[in-house]
Amino acid sequence: MFKKTAIALTMASVFAATSVMAATKDAPKAASQAIAPTIAVINLPLIMSEIPQTKSSQQALAKEFEGRENELKKLQDEGQKLAADLNSGKITGDKATEAQRKLAQLHSDFKLKATALEEDSRARFSQEQVKITSEVQKAIDKIANERGIQLVLREGSIAYTINALDISQDVIDMVSKAKK
């Protein structure tokens, strides 16, 4: 009886050891498969420069602020002409004092309007960028979902990648089609 129990215990321990070894042998393989994400890369500056929404936004903003830029150019030209007349001695006496005051006023108006234009154009540019970036993000999300991509990285933040992981052109194509 003792022999049968000893043999049974030996067999049980061998079986248990074999099962543990098999489980630990497959564990790294299973773990690596479970945590290996699918990855893609995007080149955001390339995407932003290639999509038609960026170009049309730039054209719209240029048109929107064209009148104010022309007004600034006129003020600048008028101020330069007046300064040249004062420096050349064409204007003298009381008229020179009056011209200097007018020049100071032109300079003040120019600075105020230039600052306002810069602030307004920067704000509008930011608004447009937010809209375009949102469209790009939607395209990235859609492509990632369709292909089962779990992680999308910006190309500038990684040291090395292969071209097969780059989905930038796909994003450009999708956002460009959305424009039409």
TrEMBL record:
Domain of life: Bacteria
Spans through the membrane: none
Cited PANTHER family: CHAPERONE PROTEIN SKP
Any Pfam family the entry gives: OmpH
Keyword Signal: yes
Gene: skp
Similarity comment: Belongs to the Skp family.
Entry keyword annotation includes Transmembrane: no
Protein keywords: Coiled coil, Signal
CC terms in the record's Gene Ontology section: cytosol
Coiled coil: 58-85
The protein's name: Outer membrane protein ompH
InterPro entries (alphabetical): Chaperone_Skp, Skp_dom_sf
GO molecular function annotations of the record: unfolded protein binding
Species name: Anaerobiospirillum thomasii
Endpoints of the signal sequence: 1-22
BP GO annotations: protein stabilization
